[in-house]
């Protein structure tokens, strides 16, 4: 049987944050579940989980959304990893990224957290930074708006028009990481668009 992968969408809980830039990671995980006709259920690790497959008979996917606020996402992620027996190298964390323009996806494994408190907390709780990250660009705020306020705002009208494509691209990237590896996913998603 193929090994299981834990795919975590970072965000904040509750309707107030549901459609904000900071929750784009959870939106991507929702897209992955929707493609497979799966719904989320409560898990004792303080997360909502949907168990599914990349494709029938292939790698098992544990899609997860922590019930905690972004900055303390690590506990649920570590709890799920322990529950399912999944090592850091088979965890994909999907999150928003200020330093990447909107409508752009970058992938990496390991390294620093780049100031992202959710990623920092996951690495601390796992005791390792060696998990894959699908970094979904939300861009920096215009003018002098505080980045902390920007990430907690809903996407603007022009962004909302392109959001379905961005979520689909990010979900494709997750599937490629699991199915063909990080390098294949980087080669596809880091290439300039034609």
TrEMBL record:
Compartments in which it is found: Cytoplasm
First-level EC class: hydrolase
Site (Stabilizes the basic form of H active site to accept a proton): 96
Active-site residues, as the UniProt record annotates them: 22
MF terms (GO), sorted A to Z: peptidyl-tRNA hydrolase activity
Residues annotated as site: Discriminates between blocked and unblocked aminoacyl-tRNA: 12
Swiss-Prot/TrEMBL catalytic activity: an N-acyl-L-alpha-aminoacyl-tRNA + H2O = an N-acyl-L-amino acid + a tRNA + H(+)
Binding-site residues, tRNA: 17, 69, 71, 117
Enzyme Commission number, as recorded: 3.1.1.29
Pfam family, one: Pept_tRNA_hydro
Keyword line: Cytoplasm, Hydrolase, RNA-binding, tRNA-binding
NCBIfam families assigned to the protein according to its UniProt record, in alphabetical order: pth
Similarity field: Belongs to the PTH family.
Its biological purpose: Hydrolyzes ribosome-free peptidyl-tRNAs (with 1 or more amino acids incorporated), which drop off the ribosome during protein synthesis, or as a result of ribosome stalling.
Quaternary structure note: Monomer.
Protein name according to UniProt: Peptidyl-tRNA hydrolase
Gene: pth
């Amino acid at each position: 049987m193929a090994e299981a992968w834990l795919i975590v969408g970072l965000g904040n809980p509750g309707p107030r944050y549901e459609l904000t830039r900071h929750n784009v990671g959870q939106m991507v995980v929702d897209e992955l579940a929707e493609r497979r006709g799966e719904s989320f259920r409560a898990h004792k690790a303080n997360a909502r989980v949907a168990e599914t497959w990349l494709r029938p008979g292939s790698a098992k996917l544990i899609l997860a959304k922590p019930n905690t606020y972004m900055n303390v996402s690590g506990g649920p992620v570590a709890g799920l990893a322990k529950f399912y027996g999944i090592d850091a190298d088979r965890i994909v964390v999907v999150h928003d990224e200020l330093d990447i323009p909107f409508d752009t996806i970058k992938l990496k494994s390991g390294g620093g957290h780049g100031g992202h408190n959710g990623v920092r907390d996951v690495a601390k709780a796992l005791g390792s930074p060696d998990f894959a990250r699908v970094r979904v660009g939300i861009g920096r705020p215009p003018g002098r708006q505080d980045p902390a306020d920007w990430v907690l705002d809903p996407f603007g009208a022009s962004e909302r028009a392109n959001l379905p494509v961005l979520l689909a691209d990010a979900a494709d990237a997750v599937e490629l990481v699991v199915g063909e590896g990080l390098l294949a996913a980087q080669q596809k998603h880091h290439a300039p668009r034609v």
